[in-house]
Specification:
Blueprint (H helix, E strand, L loop, with lengths): L18 H12 L6 H31 L4 H31 L8 H17 L5 H19 L2 E4 L2 E4 H5 L7 H39 L5 H8 L6 H14 L1 H15 L22 H15 L1 H12 L3 E2 L10 E6 L4 E6 L5 H24 L9 H14 L11 H34 L5 H14 L11 H5 L7 H4 L5 H19 L1 H12 L7 H7 L8 H18 L1
Parallel strand pairs: 3-5
Antiparallel strand pairs: 1-2, 4-5
Helix pairs in contact: 1-3, 2-3, 3-4, 3-5, 5-7, 7-8, 9-15, 9-22, 11-12, 13-14, 14-19, 15-16, 15-19, 15-22, 19-20, 19-22, 20-21
């Protein structure tokens, strides 16, 4: 499962080691006179050109570190960016935002092209506080520490030291005894790192609470809703939580009964809530995974397959597990090169196949958008949109899983597992969202209370049909395995919102596959500056997570499951 990681895949058009030089280039933007609308538009272009150079270099350094957290040079370069360049960006981003917002020409700019930028900058000006910069840097240091701990995890398995992801993949094993053994082995590792992870999260909660107080907010939740410039309210989130509990959880319980029956077990235990009906992992070598996904993408649309093959040829995919590799899976964009990069710490499993297809949805969205509009800017990249195309890609490929599972019953099992994943992406993100609402509106909570709350929420949603007796503590501490709570707080509910849209896309695909794929491509290349609702509409779906919409998609999911069954 090893892979050559020496290939250069990003451009360094600016020397980030020259901190004074970088600062001089940023500072020079503050001295540019803006005396007309055309001056302002030119200034915005020059600012963007500089920032994407910095962003590409920093992204490359971040990837280098994640690809080998034990590489001393990669680590020092990444830490330099975080400790020297990031403070500059925070400092000057605020000054640049102030310069832009103070311009009398700002409101004369075209609303369709610049309206979103204006709203985001205005929000950032309102929340920026100089005293928060060192707190945010400390926050990043803690997240780096978390990644190092998780990247270095190994598990003792049958006399050998194995990477943590390889044992996690054992939860998909056909043999129930192996699944249970893997579950216990993972929990043993969790217990070993629990004090360190608790200490990191305790400090993060306090840091983030202070950041919010400094910015004039009562809590970090309310602060983040403004920072993220969300197009929905806290109450909308609470309503969504309730709608999913009312209409999705009962359907999820019925699907769990199907799984329990096929497993031939009386009780659905924590190690049964995985892809355990598949006889074998879908691949044993990364090359086999790459070949199969390339074929699946190409059958869905030639452009999808072409992009994947391009990424493979140009070193823009790093899959497979190895010691020292960072945790998780993600797609990131290289704004100068115009490329997408997919990183994943995979061991052979159905989940790793599904995750690669998911990340390729992000990658294709990135290429489509870049070809039409140039590089994304940070304010344009809204996760409710990005996740629509990643989940959408998974569901568009649902009918091609026979590439890895050619036997009829295995093919059906794989499709059921993908739909189980769809359910989980309506349930797990809601668990995470409620969990974070609670954490940051109750910042004085203890580690014990945090674990208990996570267990209680989990039982309301994804673990509702699971017999968790005797494992309350283990499940309670399992939040520590979720990178998002550390690196990207309040990036959770977006998954559930996007999955509702992706299910509508699947519904459209079943009616007219060609039109659904064309709508996917149209939405994926839509103008970034539109509202979320407008981009969803271009994709042929609705940005709607009201009770009727949630109920309709819950009913649709059950119908699809019945059709496969």
């Amino acid at each position: 499962m090893t892979q050559d990681i020496s290939q250069n895949y990003y451009k360094e058009l600016i020397d980030l080691q020259d901190v004074e030089g970088v600062e001089a280039q940023i500072r020079s933007l503050l001295d540019v006179p803006i005396e007309s609308i055309s001056d302002l538009e030119l200034w915005l272009k020059e600012e963007k050109d500089l920032m994407i150079k910095i962003n590409e270099a920093m992204t490359g350094h971040h990837l280098d570190f994640y690809r080998n957290t034990e590489d001393a040079l990669a680590k020092s370069t990444y830490l330099h960016d975080q400790q020297a360049i990031q403070p500059l960006l925070m400092k000057y981003e605020a000054k640049l935002n102030e310069k832009c917002c103070a311009s009398p020409y700002l409101n004369q700019l075209d609303e369709n092209r610049y309206g979103l930028m204006r709203r985001v900058r205005d929000s950032k000006v309102k929340v920026f506080r100089e005293e928060n910069i060192p707190l945010m840097l400390k926050e990043q240091d803690l997240c780096t520490k978390y990644s190092e701990i998780m990247g270095g995890l190994t598990v003792e398995w049958e006399g050998e030291e194995k990477p943590y992801p390889s044992i996690k993949s054992m939860l998909d094993h056909l043999d129930r005894a192996v699944r249970e053994k893997a579950f216990h082995a993972m929990m043993l590792v969790h217990r070993g790192i629990k004090p360190d992870i608790d200490a990191i999260m305790d400090e993060l909660v306090q840091l983030r609470h202070q950041i919010a107080l400094n910015a004039g907010f009562e809590n970090y939740r309310d602060y983040m809703f403004v920072v993220k410039n969300l197009e929905y309210s806290v109450q909308d989130c609470y309503d969504f939580h309730e709608n999913v509990e009312k209409h999705i959880v009962p359907a999820w319980n019925r699907l769990a009964d199907v799984f329990k029956s096929k497993l031939g077990v009386d009780k659905y235990r924590p190690w049964d809530n995985t892809a355990k009906l598949l006889k074998n992992p879908p691949y044993s070598e990364v090359s086999t995974l790459l070949d199969g996904v390339s074929e699946m993408l190409g059958k869905t649309d030639p452009y999808f397959g072409e992009r994947f093959d391009y990424m493979r040829e140009h070193g823009l995919l790093d899959l497979g597990d190895r010691k020292g590799k960072g945790p998780g899976a993600f797609c990131t964009y290289l704004p100068v090169s115009g490329d997408s990069f997919v990183f994943a710490n995979f061991s052979p499993s159905f989940d790793s196949l599904s995750a690669l297809i998911h990340e390729m949805g992000h990658a294709v969205n990135g290429y489509l958008g870049f070809s039409e509009h140039g590089p994304f800017e940070e304010y344009q990249l809204r996760m409710e949109i990005a996740e629509l195309y990643s989940f959408g890609m998974e569901l568009l490929l649902l009918d091609k899983l026979d590439r890895f599972y050619p036997e009829k019953e295995d093919f059906k099992s794989a499709q059921r597992e993908e739909l189980r994943w769809a359910f989980s992406m309506l349930l797990k993100p809601l668990t995470g969202d409620i969990f974070q609402h609670w954490m940051y509106t109750n910042p004085t909570h203890t580690a014990k209370e945090r674990d208990e709350k996570f267990f209680d929420i989990s039982k309301r949603y994804g673990l509702n049909p699971v017999d968790t007796s005797g494992f309350e503590k283990e499940i309670g501490m399992s939040w520590a395995d979720t990178l998002h709570y550390f690196h990207v707080p309040f990036y959770s509910i977006e998954y559930g919102i996007a999955m509702l849209g992706a299910l509508q896309l699947l519904e459209n695909y079943q009616k007219n596959s060609v039109q659904a794929v064309e709508s996917y491509k149209k939405g994926g290349s839509a103008d970034y500056n539109q509202s979320i609702a407008a981009i969803y509409e271009e994709t042929g779906v609705s940005f709607d997570f009201s009770e009727p919409s949630v109920k309709r998609m819950g009913d649709f999911l059950e119908k699809v499951i019945q059709d496969i069954h």
